Amino acid sequence: MADLDQLKADVKKANAKAMQAKMDLHDLSEELPTNWQAIMNVAQVAYDAHAALVQAREALAQAQAAA
Fold first, then answer.
1. What is the pTM of this model?
2. Going by C-beta distance under 8 Å and a sequence separation of 6 or more, which residues neighbour residue 30?
3. Contact by Cβ (8 Å): 7, 56
4. Residue 67: what pLDDT?
5. What are the UniProt keywords, alphabetically (predicted)?
6. Which of 31, 53, 64, 65 is most exposed, with minimal Cβ within 10 Å?
7. What is the pLDDT, as a whole number, of residue 1?
8. Which string of b and e fits 27-37 if b means at least 16 CB within 10 Å?
């Protein structure tokens, strides 16, 4: 059960990071063309955060199916 609780906490943290990255990307888009040089960096952070969220959700789903 502790593993499941840890996985749930990991999903919650990953979700928070992904949502913050989404908002950062959104904020940047509203400021364009100012700071256009940051597009690739901010987009990569958002991509990585959402990839980590998907991975965390998959790990949780697998653990729940095995339990």
1. 0.90
2. none
3. yes
4. 82
5. Coiled coil, Nitrogen fixation
6. 65
7. 63
8. ebeeeeeeeee
Q: What is the pLDDT of residues 1-58, one digit of tens each?
A: 669 999 999 999 999 999 999 999 999 999 999 999 999 999 999 999 999 999 999 9
Q: Which CATH superfamily is domain 2-66 in?
A: Helix hairpin bin (1.10.287.660)
User: Which residues 6+ apart lie within 8 Å of 32 measured at CB?
Assistant: 39
Positive or negative: CA dihedral 43, 48, 51, 52: negative
Q: Are the C-beta atoms of residues 25 and 43 closer than 8 Å to each other? A: yes
Dihedral of alpha carbons 47, 50, 56, 57, sign: negative
